[in-house]
Design a protein that fits this description.
This is DMT superfamily drug/metabolite transporter. The protein has 270 residues and is mostly helical. The protein contains eleven helices and no strands. Helix 1 packs parallel to helix 4, helix 8 runs antiparallel to helix 9 and helix 10 runs antiparallel to helix 11. It starts with a helix and ends in an 8-residue tail after the last helix.
């Protein structure tokens, strides 16, 4: 009986943890199919979120004061990143009409997700630390190439909305916090830091989005989607305020609403 209960619990966690990645894949493919110009270059609007989540997760696994049970649950949740990394890579390579300039970032995401599967026990300290260093190096490569594409190779006002750096970083922070809560971690102080960091990034996202919209010609702005976007961002701020000012920093409802609303950010550029 105990075995069945544990197995069911693990299955439920896996289902919940996989939902954001499935949704992210669906949104990026749908938007690319219906909204992107024909034969345009495809770059995932979630890669930066992926690497932000990876960076925070490895900081937790490396320096976080968590017991083996929490570490196992958190690592198990993180292994599901492979859903997005491989799905995004295959879609970029096979189903988009042009070769993606983000191929290195896409590969970095795949290798990063594999590390979660091969991460040794912390008792093997030298090997464990080496894997962590490799992961951080892979994340750095992913960040560098993504920023190079975003700011230098394909700079445009539309990309500054479609692949908004602040919105992606915000999503990565929220995903990290959501996974920590899902894994039943006891890092309340760290979760508070994540909420404060998310609040700061959310404010910067507001400012950046308003600035880019100001630069865009008025006839190119869809005020319905923009209004919806700002309403969603306000809801995210409200959820973060609830987490910070409430008595329960691990309020799953607030984390879930904020995280899944943050996933919707690419719709601003329909």
């Amino acid at each position: 009986m105990m075995h069945n209960h544990s197995s069911k619990s693990k299955q439920e966690i896996a289902i919940h943890a996989s939902l954001p990645f499935v949704l992210m894949l669906f949104i990026e493919m749908a938007l690319n199919f219906y909204s992107a110009p024909r034969n345009s270059i495809f770059i995932s609007p979630y890669l930066l979120s992926f690497f932000t989540l990876g960076l925070i997760s490895f900081i937790v696994l490396w320096k976080g004061e968590i017991c083996n049970g929490q570490r196992k649950r958190f690592t198990f949740v993180l292994t599901l990143l492979v859903i997005f990394s491989i799905g995004n890579f295959l879609y970029s390579v096979i189903f988009t009409p042009k070769h993606s300039p983000a191929i290195i970032s896409n590969l970095a995401a795949v290798f990063l997700s594999i590390i979660y599967w091969r991460l040794p026990k912390p008792k093997e300290e030298s090997v464990y630390n080496t894997m962590i260093y490799c992961a951080i190096g892979i994340i750095a490569i992913g960040f560098i190439q993504y920023f190079a594409i975003y700011w230098f190779e394909l700079p445009s006002l539309f990309n500054w909305l479609r692949a908004n750096n602040f919105a992606q970083i915000l999503l990565g922070i929220l995903l990290a916090g959501w996974f920590l809560v899902l894994a039943e971690s006891r890092l309340e102080k760290f979760l508070k830091i994540l909420v404060k960091l998310a609040l700061m990034v959310a404010v910067l996202n507001y400012i950046w989005t308003a600035f880019v919209l100001y630069l865009l010609p008025q006839q190119l702005i869809n005020y319905v989607t923009v209004s919806g976007y700002f309403i969603i961002q306000f809801c995210i701020l409200a959820m973060l305020g609830w987490l910070l000012l409430g008595k329960n920093i691990k309020n799953m409802t607030a984390w879930t609403i904020a995280t899944f609303m943050a996933i919707l950010y690419p719709f601003i550029n329909i």
